[in-house]
Amino acid sequence: MSTGTGETARMTLRDFQERKDRGEKLVVVTAYDSLFGRLVDESGADAVLVGDSVGNLLAGYDSTLPVTLEQMVYHARATRAGVKRALLFVDMPFLTYQVSPQRALLNCGRVMAEGGADGVKLEGASDSVLAAVRAVVDAGIPVMGHLGFTPQSVNTLGGARVQARDAAGAKKIVDDAKRLEDAGAFSIVLELLPAKVAARVTEAVRIPTIGIGAGAACSGQVLVLHDLLGLNDGFNPKFLKRYAAMAAEVREAISRFGDEVRAGSYPDDDHSF
């Protein structure tokens, strides 16, 4: 997508929907900083998601629950600095949108204004979440939904488990997706769902579905950058395909650096002034 001036135009939500309508698969990658955001952007992804999984990957938390609004604003702003073309979506952390629609609106507004987001992501489809979605959308803030395994409900769900394995669960997911669409969501992430259930959801709504562990029928797919690059090599869910083995390369590079420093061969004349 070119502006005709040699510059690449920013993606819009209309572009996002139109690509889905044309049957083009959407590519979303999770990143948390300017450098990786820039690399994802330059690689042609349609959107970058600043996920609250930053708590697991960068802060070492056991779950996403301790992640604060201030952390998400910081990482959104940092990632936005590197993302010039792709859409930028940001996870709203635990208890920043569930308490009341008014608080949800204020907190989502901060992420948009201070973090430079193009939209926010809220988990679940309870009555309180749907009320928050409506209030936020009514204020002009785009909202992405999230169904299936919702990490902020990890304690209630008993861990990262595939959801909606029975008929009742599948029906609820489909109904919840329709409710999110009716509330004004522009897209829905589907996480850890049987492929057939995710396909039913995708057929039931007009808005794009973005899968992670939800089969190939979704409108697009999302993976965390650190996972697909093989940096997070202790994480091995069934849905994850690694496209590089960078953890081993990082260890090897640092080991070589250490060897050369200890041997006195770095810095050599070529790397000295």
Ordered list of secondary-structure elements with their pairings:
Layout: H1 13-21, E1 26-30, H2 34-42, E2 47-50, H3 54-57, H4 69-82, E3 87-91, H5 101-115, E4 119-121, H6 127-138, E5 143-148, H7 154-157, H8 167-183, E6 187-191, H9 195-204, E7 209-212, E8 220-224, H10 225-228, H11 246-263
Parallel strand pairs: 1-2, 1-8, 2-3, 3-4, 4-5, 5-6, 6-7, 7-8
Structural key phrases:
273 residues, alpha/beta, TIM Barrel, 2 domains, eight-stranded parallel β-barrel, 11 helices, globular, disordered N terminus
Mean pLDDT: 96
Helix residue percentage: 40-55%
Number of strands: 8
Question: What is the chain-wise order of helices and strands?
Answer: HEHEHHEHEHEHHEHEEHH
Query: Cα-atom Rg, whole angstroms?
Result: 20 Å
CATH architecture of the largest domain: Alpha-Beta Barrel
